[in-house]
Structure formats: structure tokens, C-alpha cells
Amino acid sequence: MRIVVALGGNALLKRGEPMTAEAQHTNVRIAAAALADLARDHQIIVAHGNGPQVGLMALQAAAYAPETLWPLDILGAETEGMIGYLIEQELMNALPNGTECATLLTRVEVDPADPAFDQPTKPIGPVYTAEDGKLIRAEHRWSMVEDSKGGLRRVVPSPLPVAILGIRPIRLLVEAGVCVICAGGGGIPVVRGADGNMEGVEAVIDKDRTSALLAQALDADVLLMLTDVEAVFRDWGGPDQAAIGSITPDALDAMTFATGSMGPKITAACDFVRAGGTMAGIGRLQDARRIVEGVAGTQVRMEPLAPENRLPGEKNSGRVSKHQPEAVQSPA
Fold this sequence. Notes:
This protein is of the alpha/beta class. The chain has one domain (2-111, 160-327): 3-Layer(aba) Sandwich (Carbamate kinase). The protein contains 10 helices and 17 strands. The strands form 5 sheets. Strands 2-1-12-16-17-15 form a 6-stranded mixed sheet, with helices on both faces. A 4-stranded mixed sheet has the order 8-4-10-11. α3 (51-64) crosses α4 (72-94). The longest helix has 23 residues, at 72-94. The chain is globular, with a radius of gyration of 19 Å.
């Protein structure tokens, strides 16, 4: 199968860990092992988040030149290159010799009239204590919200992706059997001016929404969103909290999810499946294969499947993948 994998920023840099190159390198190596396991049987395209990383770089830039803050589109490009390099290197180390990988900086067009620009919702950077958060908010004039685990976190505009500008070269590489790493951080946000020229904007695009757009454009079978929680939960934090296994988009429409965290994943999953995708999965990085096999995480499909008819590729599924394993780089 062809699978677009969206790695959450928190899957690459765990909550509470020091934001160091060493910590991130260790986590990327773990992620690469899980991705390589998946790539042995399927063709994967990798996207990734950059929330913790772009927030850190914004702080570093602000410390260097507080009067001239670096714009988020440039910081997004820097983190896309940095994280893409780490993923590509560790993935190449984990995959069989002869496998080809390529990391592409990806511009993504957004609408300058998107109402998201007037209502920041996308969390980036670390979680601060209430006291530190108030000081940083006053110093940098950042919008901040309370984090689910306590403290404050910066939020920035998160406009919807309209078009992936580099989709043709991405598609060419994918069709050639290359494992492509792209659309990092949701892509570099750009808008089209009246003269037709593109320019960057102050925003961070949600990587799950861009990943759904990418998966549709590449005619993927599965959209796999990997994070640091085991599944989607109904009544999160309430007395009836329970993990959701297999569910339909219509059933999810009747539920409410946090705008800055699980909400975009749910919307991305529903959009992809309604556009013709076989399945969208949400769950932990270490469960990647099991989510694809239908035995872990949350799987969103147009129609729930009986246990004996889990997913394409299983013995009794009765379904055929749009993309055959022959197109995937496999071990000898």
C-alpha cells in the first residue's frame, strides 16, 4: 500500500524532554526504526510536525535580536530542513542498501483572507510555567493559551492549506520508488499576491491537514498520523473517557475535539477518507504497523469493518490495495 505518514512534533521530541539536538536525534532514530519496519512492506511518504522546534528557534532568534523577530515562514523552512535531514539520515541507516530517500522543502499556499489569521490557535514551542509564560507573553507580545498539562504555550495562526506547490516533483519521485520526506511542519506558508508572485506569511500550517491534502494528491491508500497518545479518546478527561477503535467520519462529526491538538487530526482523517482513502489511522509511533493492520490506535473508515475483514493486506480482508508491494523498496 501507499501510506502517507504524518509524524507529530511531540513524537520526535517528547513532552518534558530537554530541547537539545541529542534528545531529538535519539527520538528520530526511534521513529526511523518504526518507519523502516513499515517501509519494508509498504511505500511510505513522510511528513512531520515542527511545533516544538519552530517555537525553540523563534525564542533563539528573539534572544539574538529582540527588535527584529524572524518570520515564521523562514523558521518553518529552517526546521523543515533540519528535521528532514535527521529523518532521512536515520531512515537510510535503518532501511536496506539501495533504498533511495529525498527530503524536499515544500511551499504550501494558504488564503490571505483565511479567518485563522485573526484567531491564533496552533500551539508551538515549549510549555512554560504560568509565571514564565506571562513574562514571555509580555516581552514578545505573543498570543498564549493554557496547555492541557498545565502552564502556558504560544499559539500562532494556522490557516488551511489550499495547494501544495511542489506536488509535481513530489509525485515524480514517489512514482520512481523514492521514499520522500516532505511537507514538514505543514509546509512553508505562502500567499499569492495580486501580481501572482508568492510571499511568505506569519503562520504555521497544521501538518495533519497538509498531510491529508498530500495523501489525496498522491492517491495514497492510508493516511497515518502518529503522535504520543495511543488513540483518539471520547470524553477526554471526563468520567466516560474511552479509546476509540474503528469509527466512521459521520460518527466523529457528532463529537467535539480540542482545536489545537486532536481536532485537526480528526478533520484530516475524515477529509481523507471521504475523498476516497481506504483508512486514516491515529495513534502512537511505536504502534505504526499495528494501526495499519487494524489492531491498535483509532482507524477511521467510511464503513466499520468486521474483525475478520480488518484492512487491506490481511489474509481475510477481501480488499485490494491501489498500490502493489512491488513498487516498494524491500529487503533482499
